[in-house]
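Good morning C.,

I know you're traveling, so I'll keep this short. The sequence:
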Amino acid sequence: MTSIIAAIYSVLGLFYVLLFLFAAYSLYAMISAAPFVPTAKKRVKKMISLSGLRNDMTMMDLGSGDGRIVFEAAKTGAHCVGIEINPVLYYWSRIKQGIRPRKNVLFRRESLWETDVSHIDVLTIFFIHPKMEKLMKKLRTEMKPGALIVSYAFTFPGWQYEIKDDKIYVYRVER
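The tokens, ready to paste straight into the viewer:
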């Protein structure tokens, strides 16, 4: 009986540790970029469709959360990369990847501010307004000309989008 109680306390302890990590990294994400907000499947499909993603392209989702955009984009055959700093969300994506392996999907746990985006053809993002200008400077400087950025819900200040469909904005990098 005591071993069952000990096991229950161990599971509860692990749950609280994971909950704390999730909350701490969610707070960090909100300060540095955006909180985790799952994007509706309908919007994910629309984002991928508007990007024109093909199997000869590389796609990256900055702040990939639970990986839903990466997994949907992978259906095109493109090489898809998810960048996530929150360890709970990162490992959840990796678990999902392990359950249904895809050779064209990769998840990396790192800060989006330190991520190399120079080789990316299509970048998807969900950011909050206070950080959009900082992100815009990074992307315009580091991404290759002709690359596309698909932003859900938020626009870049002073940068004209090529396509607007509901709350989805598509930008082309030019130099």
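Safe travels,
E.
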